[in-house]
Please model this.
Amino acid sequence: MPHALNAATVARLLGVDPSHGLNTSEADERRKRFGANAIQTIRPRSPWRILLEQFASLIVALLAVAASIAWATGDVIEAVAIIVVLVINALIGFATEWQAGRALDALRRQARTTARVRRNGQQTNVDAADLVPGDVVILNAGDRVPADSRLIRAGSLHAEESALTGESTTVEKSSEPAEANALLAERHSMVYLGTTIAAGHGVAVVTATGANTELGRIGKLVADAPDESTPLEARLAHLGHRLVYAVLVIAAVVMVTGWLRGDGLWLMAQVAISLAVAAVPEGLPTVTTLILALGVLRMARQNAIVRRLPAVETLGSTSIICTDKTGTLTQNRMTVREYQLADGRSVSPVDPRSSLEKDELPGRAVRASVLCNEAALTAPSAEGLRALGDPTETALLLAAEEMSIDVSRLRSEYPKIIEVPFDASTKRMITVHRGKTGTYLAALKGAPSVVLDACANYLDASSSTRPLDDEARARFLLANEEMADRALRVLGLAEKRLAGAGEQVALGTISNLESNAEIQAGYTFLGFVGMIDPPRPEVPEAIEHARAAGIRVVMLTGDQMNTARAIARELRLNGDQEAEALHARDLEGLSHDRLAELARTANVFARVSPEDKLRIVEALVQCGEVVAVTGDGVNDAPALKRASIGVAMGERGTEAAKEAADIVLTDDNFATILKAVEGGRVIYANIMKFVHMMFSHNLAEVLVIFLSIAAGWPLPLLPLQILWMNLVTDVFPAIALALEPAAPGVMLRPPRSPKSSLLSRDLLVLIGWQAMLLAAIVLLIYAWALGVYGEGAHARTVTLVAIVGVQLGHMFNCRSRTRTAFEGLFRNPFIWIAAAIVIALQLTAVYLTPLSRVLNTTRLTSLDWLMAAGAVVAPIALVEATKLFSRWKRRG
Model:
């Protein structure tokens, strides 16, 4: 625990003299022992792996077996057609996921990190990957910390650690030892790989590199976390197993029936294969991939990059969103919320009434915050005014500009002579400035209690000076506590007119400002300034929408408890009730079941480490929740990977977070997640429309063939005609159904259970009776064709056209199980386009000679086409009648 040891002790244990550093030979020897300063990362999927994963489906395997059997029995054209279907499906999935990977690559910002170190008694720059334990590194504002290091010296050093700990503010650092049991965010004597020096300077000795760093430990958690299959993948796998059994049963029943009837065994084997082709939904992989791919395109237009196709649908199943606070729920930038003045007034920078021209006290408070400040403003750009420096100090400058204070002009009117920089031990900063008439002004900024201790007076409402007695001090401390309870980071502001001491400072005759009483005490208290990392404005409404959709939002943050509570309250995380919050210490020693129980009721977890986040997410996933985890920091990566679906922020997100996530939001907007959830629900609903349509169609085909054989009729369709029919009536109608707009109230329903089957009992009943209806219509037309044309190609062509007709009409029925097929019919023009394509393809199959020969079809008469038209209308009319009766019954 180097954070709890004296700096000199740490250097001695590491065998290094901080003033000299390591020798080159010693550094080389240690590098061989400890390895390169590189962390374990998630390897991106190779193009070959992405392609091969497209074939990892039981339904695809079933189709491959069907193609093999067709090839072995001499049906080469049929076998080739099935293989073409599989290849098209794989190429669509590969192209979509590969494009998603390329889009993610465009977000990456690769940068080689170098470090300034002492070696051989001299300072030199080396590649951060070459650092070893014992190296002495020099740190300045703006530097990225190259390895976990123990501070030896720290001068006003502040580190930005939000990516690692979730802290929204910079962390003060010092060389003094920290408590042995201090949490990661409270180890002020350490700086960590993956963080940035926001202000100040320091010298540190490297204590850990590579996989042994805190960041490396998180990298190992990410790499070790298992990949979770999505609910859609699980449902499709389950459906595939059921289809295998169904096909085997169908084939066996048909073979036995035919054999008992006296038909030859080989002939019945061929018929069984035909039935298997009819039963297996060869369009399922292709159309599911197409529907998901269309969802990916739609998501891309909504600022979300989908890295895995099934992840699009998974969001629709989400029951809990576990989200980081900093940068996700909040803006990740400190903002001045209010000035609590010494006279009791509260002034907001955004309040147009807070004019400073005629109001002396607010103006003096803002002036002190601008002068006692090391940050600087940049020139205005297209993005507006920006500031460089510590986030707390930049917030003060931007607030002053918002209140119409010209910062540059004010600083030129009060040039800084000297400053006593902020230090973690004193918790305050002092600057001395020369005024216009030769007077001198000292400005003081720091911790509220420290500033009050340095003050002898305060300004009242009339800007008159009053003694700071015990009563006034107690009043101000109470105001400070009230602001802190609202999660505001509070600084005290004070000023002092200098007489002789100002002259001495200007001439440099005061040798020790730190101990000079006239510089350190006797200030006039002006008030407090309260800052916060404000919530994103769109988040409260998004959380309300999530609640209406039955989705619970849980905050997992490394921030302090009071800050987390205040943000949760402001976001209305638990509606009108106070959010239930737990500290990381509350989770220590809990069993898995107890942790899951708490995670299902608490809305806020504060001061959590990456391991805590991972444990919470694992507990929720294993108890049946579909968990979406959002985040942008390195500390979020393990939970992102372990979640049912990980959602990373693209703008502020670290590479570790993006690599671990399934979806990357390019706009870092929490509200986009709810749009994605709605999109996922719509996609799933549209997949179910296709499943409804496809299984109704395929079962109807099985019934037509089976009942024809059972009745002693000739085979109504040839195997290749069955395959052609399935491709024509599945793919294009499915694409049309995939583009169906959202049904009313889609985000007012609870999330579906991840344990639910694609084919629920109600859906199976619906599919069953509708398939019998379609089969009955086709069998009637087939019986008529046999009577008119006899056995042969003409009767089969009529049957083919009839079954395509009933399936085309049934496409309209599948738009909704309860609402009429004609509701919003023209809101989806793709329905009509799909119908036109199906009709055109069927005409081609009948009248294009080369295709007609392959499919063994013949030209039809006008009466035949009239029967086909009746086949289109009949299922629509009959199903609409049942829907009308159901709606009337529910109203009654």
